[in-house]
């Protein structure tokens, strides 16, 4: 590839990392507490509230079941209101964050449900509050699973960010569409695919190593 194309590839990689990093952070800030709420408000849980739990679960399922490309288009007015535009990397962060939040919530919920119920009952018997149980038992014990959940989410966001590039979201997907497909430059498309594969492999490997290091079982 020409030096100009290499520069564009590097810039697109930075844009992809920006989109995935910010949306992953926002998704975690909202998805982690949402996952905790799904666990502690369930039937027989610390703060049982079945009606609230069902509504929360239904909303999470509705967003998760919506194909990302449809979500991307459907919330364009909201994206424009939040970001001031519906095109570019900043705009793409909005739908990516919305897609990541319930995905993280459900994975966090699954990780928290793996925690030994006996530990929770022991702390309840000693008079611990729900907040103390969440901080001292649920989150520490489920941390390896949560790290794995975040790793899976980031990998999924990389794929979503490439899809966002098809509608002007910027990043590697945009580069592949504009130059690899529309301008018939197969070497650009091949380079984009290779970079995406290497990026996913690096993130997955790092996440797996961190999860194993945190798992003391």
Automatic annotation (TrEMBL):
Enumerate the Gene3D superfamilies for this protein: MetI-like (1.10.3720.10)
Q: How does it sit in the membrane?
A: Multi-pass membrane protein
Claim: Cytoplasm is one of the keywords in the record = no
A GO CC term attached to the entry: plasma membrane
Key words of the record: Cell membrane, Membrane, Transmembrane, Transmembrane helix, Transport
Q: Give the signal peptide, or none.
A: none
A matching Pfam family: BPD_transp_1
What's the family? Belongs to the binding-protein-dependent transport system permease family. CysTW subfamily.
Protein name (record): ABC transporter permease
